[in-house]
Design a protein that fits this description.
Radius of gyration: 21 Å
Number of strands: 19
Bound molecules: magnesium ion
Number of helices: 12
Structural class: alpha/beta
Amino acid sequence: MSHQQDRVRPSGSPSGSATALSEAYDTALLDLDGVVYAGGEAIVHAVDSLAAARAGGMHLAYVTNNALRTPDAVAAHLTELGVPAEPSDVITSAQAVARLVADQLPPGARVLAIGGEGLRVALRERGLDPVESADDDPAAVVQGYGGPDMTWGRFAEASFAIRRGLPWFASNTDLTIPSARGIAPGNGAAVEVVRIATGAEPQVAGKPLPPMHRETVLRTGAKRPIVVGDRLDTDIEGAFNGGVDSLLVLTGVTDAAQLLAAPPEHRPTYVDRDLRGLLTGQPEVTPDGDAYRCGGWTAAVRGDALALDGEGDALDGLRALCAAAWTFAGAGVCGLETGKALAGLQL
Ligand SMILES: [Mg+2]
């Protein structure tokens, strides 16, 4: 496929890039929460970095597993935060699941929609007819995040229809969703409620699964995309499954210890502090005997722990540690003690 890299990304080390990532890739597929904004506020350096990347010719697209809001509403929110965006720049899991449903049903089919406006708009866009009741003669059930006002009766409606044998689709299965007041149950938790009541299994579209990546590539026309995210098990694994490169930013839910313990499908191509990483090249990590060097740092395995020596940019130290940990772990998960090595880094 044209969007796939022609090389297999080595998972034993972060990669280097001689040119700025905004020049090396034509399109950034950006996650939103923890990358562009958090709790309604723009993340530090996001607005300026995205403006500079766009000015340099990079296409920016925003890819969210949240099926509640329409692309129009997400684009308006981004624009308000100082990140100008058109609705066509926003790809949601509602759009991905709507395509998945449309691929399996005749045009105009009725679909029981359990979710918010974003889901109903996406279904209509694919020529499907969202209905509200299991008694409205639907041909399938589709479930997306419905927000805090979703009533228990909606899950009952889904259960009635699924128990009659209808196919069941879910926009995404994120168990939690961040909110201004803390962590709340996400669509994955709602899907679990229906799963318990029905014993059925939904077809899922959202990150890290291929339907979501396919939707972003179809809608953006990206030839050489880079996925930018803060979560290993959605953003980075989604890039891995799609065969494209990725940049992990440390402004969201992933910390350095989790990154070092990542299995191959959760290892990003690059790691940086925040979205300024799009505007720069990335340093090489070079093997040196049984150690790994990056910038002024050297990382190695010593006994059952990772060790780090040197000085300089803390990110380079983390990159060197990633190479040591991931090479040691191979296809598995690094179980080495990392606390001491990370304590010396001011990340
Ligand atoms: Mg995120």
